[in-house]
Amino acid sequence: MKRDFLHITDFTADEIHETFVLAKEVKARFKGREDYKPFKDHTMAMVFAKPSARTRISFETGFFRMGGHALYLSPSDISIGEREAVKDIARVIARYNDVIMARLFSHNQVMEMAKYSTVPVINALTDYNHPCQIMADMFTILEHRGHLEDLKVVYVGDGNNIVHSWLRLAERLPFHFVCACPDGYQPDTDTFAAAKQAGISEVEVSHNPKEAVKNADIVYTDVWASMGQKSESEQRKTRFRGFQVNDELMAATGKNSLFMHCLPAERGVETTDSVIESKASIVFDEAENRMHVQNAILLKICGKV
Ligand code: CP
Ligand code: NVA
């Protein structure tokens, strides 16, 4: 049975912990410039329908350094769902490659791709979620704190794909997660309900960012208008007033909280220069860890460990 990684809930809690252990090991090998080539003579197709910096660079670099070759397929190369059916291109790519990474608009398309591909498919962001990002985020938190006990993560901003992956993680690992968003920008109802029902974590939605961030270990934000919503940018700036993560909001935690952002950031909009540049900010560790955690995910779903 081939394995895909489309949602964090595709992994059990044990597998998530194993991924973190493996990511730490692979990171040390990379830092030590060890000759480590588990993907020698393997190829990975990277299908992009949306722009990317971190995702492309981290997957391509990581796979190359593990001995493989990654192919970047730009939005115009495949024109997913337009030039030909997803179920056709999925089967074609799987005939040439050992693994597929896909960043698409439609979550249904990535599900369809996984259904028809005979090789593992990794979701590298859809309109619905971004599982590799949040796996890397939790690994980064673990590195900084040394443990995951008594963790409060407060996300301030739009209840978007990033939040859905945080909620999926909350179905597996125990922590306190609060999404502070304007009314009307809550995360998907079913995803929130599933996280609550799992009974593993405490999950909440708040419309009061100052109140929500109290005692937060992590304050996390993301753009107010995601890819595909950029025409709403101006209108959202009005709706999200009061939800900017600035020095004042960081001080409202009443704690030495850490600041995280998946990036790219719109400085001066959802957060400020001073917060990104502050001592609390771990955004570049977070970005680096995308590569190490994705490498671990690849090793796991491709049966290399
Ligand atoms: N965080 C993230 O996925 O960044 P990119 O959109 O640049 O890949
Ligand atoms: N929510 C953002 C995340 C980018 C990594 C987007 O989908 O554009």
Question: Overview of this structure, please?
Answer:
Helix content is 43%, strand content 14%. It has helices at 13-31, 54-65, 75-78, 86-96, 107-116, 131-145, 161-170, 189-198, 209-212, 233-239, 247-251, 273-276, 283-301, and strands at residues 43-48, 69-73, 99-103, 121-123, 152-156, 176-180, 202-206, 218-221, 258-261. It has a 5-stranded parallel sheet. Helix 2 links the parallel strand 1 and strand 2. Helix 2 packs across helix 13 and helix 7 (161-170) packs parallel to helix 8 (189-198). The longest helix is centred in the N-terminal third of the chain and has 19 residues, at 13-31. The two termini are 15 Å apart. The model has no long low-confidence stretch (mean pLDDT 98).
What is this entry, summarized?
The chain is an alpha/beta fold. It is built from 13 helices and nine strands.
Show the helix and strand layout:
Blueprint: H1 13-31, E1 43-48, H2 54-65, E2 69-73, H3 75-78, H4 86-96, E3 99-103, H5 107-116, E4 121-123, H6 131-145, E5 152-156, H7 161-170, E6 176-180, H8 189-198, E7 202-206, H9 209-212, E8 218-221, H10 233-239, H11 247-251, E9 258-261, H12 273-276, H13 283-301
Parallel strand pairs: 1-2, 1-3, 3-4, 5-6, 5-8, 6-7, 8-9
The structure holds phosphoric acid mono(formamide)ester (CP) and norvaline (NVA).
